Amino acid sequence: MGLPETGSSDQAATEGLQQLGYKQEMTRSRGLAHILFMTLAIMAVPYGLAAPIATSLVAGGPAVMIWGWILVAVLTQTLALSLAEICSKYPTSAGAYYWCYRLASPQRRLVISWINGWLTMVGVWTIALSVTFGTAQLVVAGAGIYLPNWVATPWQTYLIFLAVTAVACFFCLFLNRLLPSIDILCAIWTALGIIVILICLSSKAAAGRHSAAYALGQYDASASGWTPGWSFFIGLLPVSYTFSAIGMVASMAEEVHNPSHILPQAITWSIPIGAIWGIIFLLPITFTLPDVATLISVSSGQPVGVMFTLAMGSQGGGFGLWFIIFGIGMFCAISISCAASRATWAFARDKALPLHTYFSHVNTRLDDVPVNAYILSTAIQVLLGLIYLGSSAAFNAFVGVAVMCLGASYAMPVAISLLNGRKDVHDAPFSLGKWGNVVNAIAVLWIMFAIVLFSMPAVIPVTQSSMNYASVVFVGFGLFSAVWYMIDGRHHYTGPPVPEVTEMKQTPSEGGSTDE
């Protein structure tokens, strides 16, 4: 695309943003390839499937991994299409809580927007935390390849987590201009990595090869304790986790050329591309899977390193495949931390966070990075990570909470639009047309089911270490947002700007200040 055309689309995007009530503060530097690859980087298919693979193995094994992946990909596609439609009409970094405000009735939109905004905040903070901490646990698994008797203490794991977080901070704060190129590099790394894993596992298969009947149909739910039928759905947890953050790129809307057209394409195309990557990644694993009992008995609870080592027949081979997954985890940590900071900045811009003026500040000397919002997002993750020192079970609940909060925040505007007869999106640039009602309904029902699913323990009978505290933490954050609304929110939060207000003032709503 030539520079004049880009400049023209950026000018139109800036004017469109003003009509939504905001002024342009970020630099538009991302085209379709950049934002699509960022979506795929956040999805991080091989990492998302490998890091929690123990749950899939316990819940049933190969059949759950393959068919569960296909099922959830199809269901998530309906959500992606639904979000893309709304996003195309309201392309702002405020995302879902802005959509709720514009779609809900005037009597309820303020509270609904507040609730959605806090669901989004908790969701993006905890999903980013799950990636950075999960990558730290992956490092422990990699070390276990050469040090099988070493068991990392909680403090050691936490320090590795801080190191992963520091690397992500460096890239996001000081190399913001390079992040679009880094997302492209991530896509290349992921695609080549999947091919390398496919070739290596298929050619080596040191732990033995399985028949197609085993690789596609082996199902043993005895380790989970659940009934076979329900155990299959418990095995969907890793798959749902992989797809949970598909809407986070909406927070990058104000850094995208022509967002009304590019963002919907990125959101919708990321699912089929990710689904294909997932199938290519999973099939060689299920065809060469080592003994499942050995994998689920790994002391760290993270069997990826052991799985690859046994399948390759050597520590070096196992470490090489592990390193591919680790690299994807690091790329994901960078991209998801960036998106989380933009969501935090947008919420502060609308005066919904304490010290909102400070956290809505944009630093122009660092290529228009919302530094203060990024530091806030990271600081919250670092503090929440301390919970791991007291209880790994309680900490692991944050993975479930992230999926529940993000899912609820995505489903709310879709449900509101559906209840309104979809009259507000009939003129959206990306329209679902006559299929809108069906697609929206499936998306909402799927999220409702997923929220119930993520409240369940992976194994029964439940012990203190296997208890799923996700629902408790989810309700806890909900109570906190309600209390904070009564204490402060109702006095300062007036909701996102709307065109009527903007026209009366003849200026965009106040955004964060910028460095000169």
Structural class call reads mainly alpha
Strand tally is: 0
The name of the CATH architecture is Up-down Bundle
Work out the strand percent: under 5%
Tally of separate helices:
23
Order of helices and strands: HHHHHHHHHHHHHHHHHHHHHHH
- The Cα radius of gyration reads 22 Å
Walk me through what this model shows.
With 516 residues, the chain is mostly helical. It has helices at 3-20, 32-43, 45-50, 53-59, 62-89, 96-103, 109-146, 154-174, 179-204, 212-217, 228-234, 237-243, 259-287, 292-296, 304-312, 315-349, 356-359, 371-385, 387-390, 392-419, 436-453, 470-492, 499-505. The chain has a single domain (39-505), classed as Amino acid/polyamine transporter I, CATH 1.20.1740.10. The chain is built from 23 helices and no strands. Helix 7 packs across helix 8 (154-174). The chain is globular. The two termini are 30 Å apart.
How would you describe this structure in keywords?
516 residues, mainly alpha, Amino acid/polyamine transporter I, 23 helices, 70% helix, 0% strand, globular, transmembrane helix, transmembrane, transmembrane transporter activity, membrane, AA/rel_permease1
Topology at a glance:
Elements: H1 3-20, H2 32-43, H3 45-50, H4 53-59, H5 62-89, H6 96-103, H7 109-146, H8 154-174, H9 179-204, H10 212-217, H11 228-234, H12 237-243, H13 259-287, H14 292-296, H15 304-312, H16 315-349, H17 356-359, H18 371-385, H19 387-390, H20 392-419, H21 436-453, H22 470-492, H23 499-505
Helix pairs in contact: 2-9, 2-13, 2-16, 5-13, 5-20, 5-21, 6-7, 6-20, 7-8, 7-15, 7-16, 7-18, 7-20, 7-22, 8-16, 8-18, 9-13, 9-16, 15-16, 16-18, 20-21, 20-22
